[in-house]
Amino acid sequence: MNEHTVKAFDEDITRLRGLIAEMGGLAELSIHEALDAMVKGDEELAKKVVKRDKKIDALESEVDKLAVRVIALRAPMADDLREVIAALKIAGVVERIGDYSKNIAKRVGEIEGRSRFEPLTLLPAMGEIASEMVHDVLTAYAARDPALAREVIAADEKVDAFYNSIFRNVVSYMVENPATISSAAQLLFVARNIERIGDHATNVAEMVHFAATGTYPPDEDG
Asked: Domains of the chain (ranges plus CATH)?
């Protein structure tokens, strides 16, 4: 009976991991497509990103139900419980990453004079780093790799530096080109959303580290 319970638990954990991997893949795709749509002004692609968010939400709901069922039926202890709680938390964070991508996609139609709007060219590089963080943290989760999780946390400094640089660039552009203020404000909103994606990838990395080792990574600032 005990062996059966262990096997059933392992199957549940595998299912949880599969759902989170699927969520993460969709969230990663949404980051890429939202920024691509933003740069090109592709409103059809933006609509696809907005629509995909419902699928990410549905997967999170599935993770929630399964995690609660596992805790109720299997009464996991120690490492096993940590694994389930991590899955529950990570799904919530990945869902928020999907929301940020949706927010970016919704702004696609708000940028005017796209071909002449120089600050727009800065966003893809920032988005690429944030997207890599999401990809790497999901790899770290799948492989239970605390070292890769720590690398993701370190990468967040690059995203923050990009955000600060874009902020300064866009504000000075607004001052020199007052007619672009509305578009520039939208761009700052997009940059802020990318910065938040980086923060959320960092949060997931901390949970991955905890799930793998039982400890949170050391605070680099402390």
From this structure: 2-213 (1.20.58.220)
